[in-house]
Specification:
This protein is mostly loops and about 160 residues long. Helices cover about 15% and strands about 0% of the residues. A hairpin with a 2-residue loop joins strand 1 and strand 2.
């Protein structure tokens, strides 16, 4: 995707969730190209309730961002910086978080079914009430993780179902 299209996507997203979500609905045919936000600086951005499904946010800076109730299903967040981000209640179905930095993030009550969290840094993450069914945690750092009330049905750790 060219740089101008990427900048347009970033400008639309930063203009507010109402405008962004309206654009996603109005230009559904563009979605085949997926919004390109690779490497975007979204530090402390308020993206609560944003429709970011299937977006490319790989390598993005989402540190301290508010992503509460956001739709991030099948989004590419590989290598993204999500330290201290609030993702509570977000839809993270089949999200790609390989090698992402999630230290201190709030993932309580998220839907992480079939999520790829391999090699992710999850130190101190709150996963209370999260659905982790069939999630992949191969090589992930889970030190200090709160899994209270989480659905741990068939999660994969180090290549083995637990």
């Amino acid at each position: 995707m060219n740089l101008m299209a990427k900048q347009k996507h970033l400008d639309l997203l930063l203009s507010g969730n109402t405008i962004w979500n309206k654009w996603r609905r109005a230009y559904f045919d563009v979605q085949a190209l997926e919004p390109d936000l690779h490497g975007a600086d979204l530090y402390e951005a308020d993206l609560s309730g944003a429709d970011l499904h299937e977006a490319d946010l790989s390598g993005a800076n989402l540190q301290n961002a508010n992503l509460q109730e956001a739709d991030l299903q099948e989004t590419d967040l590989r290598g993204a910086d999500l330290r201290n981000a609030n993702l509570s209640g977000a839809n993270l179905f089949k999200v790609h978080l390989h090698s992402a930095d999630l230290r201190g993030a709030n993932l309580s009550h998220t839907y992480l079914k079939e999520a790829d969290l391999s090699k992710a840094d999850l130190r101190g993450v709150d996963l209370k009430g999260a659905n982790l069914s069939k999630a992949n945690f191969d090589g992930a750092n889970l030190s200090g993780v709160d899994l209270n009330d989480g659905n741990l049905n068939m999660i994969s750790a180090n290549g083995k179902k637990v």
